[in-house]
């Protein structure tokens, strides 16, 4: 099936002694569940899928998700960001700029 929007949420888990952070330990599965629950409740008229993914390899920026077909990466995502991402990006096709990887990278430079 081809989706209008496909949301991948990192749930990667590293060994406790690993030097890098791990989205799975942050709250990856909780965010997957939140997206799935909210999208089901909303019953939007577009084809959507939210699912867990393996490592997206930008863990240093915090919990990561990516939305296709746009290929927009969001970092530092918290549970309270799910509604905003759905309302802005999924429904209104406006990326949530404060969470976009590109904007976070610029601020850190």
Describe the structure concisely for a colleague.
The protein is an alpha+beta fold.
What does this structure look like?
It is a single chain. The chain is α+β, with helices and mostly antiparallel strands. The protein has one domain (5-108): Glutaredoxin. 34% of the residues lie in helices and 19% in strands. The protein contains 4 helices and 4 strands, in the order E-H-H-E-E-E-H-H. The chain has helices at residues 23-26, 28-42, 82-91, 101-108; strands spanning 5-10, 48-53, 64-68, 72-75. It has a 4-stranded mixed β-sheet. A hairpin with a 3-residue loop joins strand 3 and strand 4. The radius of gyration is 14 Å and the shape is globular. It starts with a strand and ends with a helix. The relative contact order is 0.21.
């Amino acid at each position: 099936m081809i989706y209008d929007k496909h949301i991948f949420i990192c749930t990667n888990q590293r060994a406790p002694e690993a030097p890098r952070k791990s989205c799975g330990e942050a709250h990856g599965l909780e965010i997957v569940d939140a997206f799935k629950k909210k999208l089901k409740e909303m019953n939007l008229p577009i084809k959507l899928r939210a699912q867990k993914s393996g490592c997206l390899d930008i863990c240093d920026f915090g919990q990561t998700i990516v939305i296709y077909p746009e290929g927009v990466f969001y970092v530092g995502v918290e549970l309270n960001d799910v509604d905003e991402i759905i309302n802005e990006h999924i429904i209104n096709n406006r990326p949530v700029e404060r969470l976009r990887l590109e904007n976070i990278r610029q601020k850190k430079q």
